[in-house]
Every structure is written in C-alpha cells, then in structure tokens.
Design brief:
Number of helices: 4
Strand content: 15-25%
CATH topology: Rossmann fold
Number of strands: 5
Radius of gyration: 15 Å
CATH superfamily: Hypothetical protein VC1899 like domain (Restriction endonuclease-like)
Shape: globular
Largest sheet: 5 strands, parallel
CATH architecture: 3-Layer(aba) Sandwich
CATH class: Alpha Beta
Order of helices and strands: EHEHEHEHE
C-alpha cells in the first residue's frame, strides 16, 4: 500500500475552536480526517493564510494527538481576495506545478471541505484536469453519537 498524502486548506470557521477540552466535542474537518480508523493519512499538506497561523498550528498539534503517524506540512498561501477566481486558480496552479508529485509511490486525496467556495471549485477543477493528480475527498460530520465518540465523526 502506497503512502497517502492529503492536500487541503485550513477551515477558518470549521476548523476553528476554543482552546481546551471542549474543542474535541466539535467537528473539525482537518482534524477529523485524521481520526478515521480505516484511513491512514501519512502526510497532510495544509494550506493556511498568514492571519490563521495560530489556528494552523493548533490543528497541526491536534492532528499529532489523534494521529501521531501523520506528518503535517503547513503551507502558507495568502490571497488578496480568496473569492477571486483568477487569483485562487493561478496560485493553486502554481503550487501544483511546483509540488513534487510521485504517483508511482504515493496516493493523493484533495480535501475540498474547507476554504471558500472559489477555493473548493478551483481544487475541483485542478484535480479534474489532473494538475492535482489525486482523488477528491469531501467530508462531513456523522450524526451525534451519544456514546461520546470524539468529535462526532
């Protein structure tokens, strides 16, 4: 089985949480993705904007707690306007051209749950055009589990 790399954006709303133990009671897509028993994420390339570095580091720490085998690579990507299609597509295309994809030795999932709708659409388009040579992944929370399963996933 080849190692699995996930590429996605920090969710400034969905991944955000208050500090302390209560954060484990809220579904946070980037952390939750690394909590599935039947999905081993070896590497998570996590884009974030400079205004969200603290959140990115918190998410990285929480991923290390729930999935110590997952290596998180924080990747700064700022946009003047994350709703501007041309800017977002261009920066993601530049990333895809510069990133060292190795399809023979690694599998890729492109996580499109977080980010603006424009970011999600651009990730979709770049994946469909094979600039991002992976499979699309969209996650959602499971219904609340009264047995206390962490994070509701």
């Amino acid at each position: 089985m080849k190692p699995l790399t996930v590429i996605g954006f920090i969710g400034s709303t969905l991944d955000a949480s208050k500090s302390g133990p209560a954060r484990w009671n809220k579904w946070r897509p980037s952390v939750g993705l690394c909590m599935y028993e039947d999905l081993r994420v070896d590497r998570f390339v996590l884009f974030y904007g400079c205004n969200y570095e603290r959140l990115a580091r918190c998410v990285m720490s929480d991923i290390a707690t729930v999935s110590p085998e997952t290596k998180v690579e924080l990747c700064l990507m700022d946009f003047d306007d994350p709703w501007d299609f041309e800017e977002v597509y261009g920066k993601l295309l530049d990333f895809s051209r510069a990133f060292s994809f190795d399809n023979d030795h690694e599998d890729y999932l492109i996580h499109i749950t977080t980010g603006t709708h424009v970011i999600q659409i651009c990730l979709f388009l770049l994946t469909e055009a094979r600039f991002l040579p992976g499979k699309l992944l969209q996650t959602q929370p499971r219904p609340f589990q009264p047995d206390g399963e962490r994070g509701g996933f």
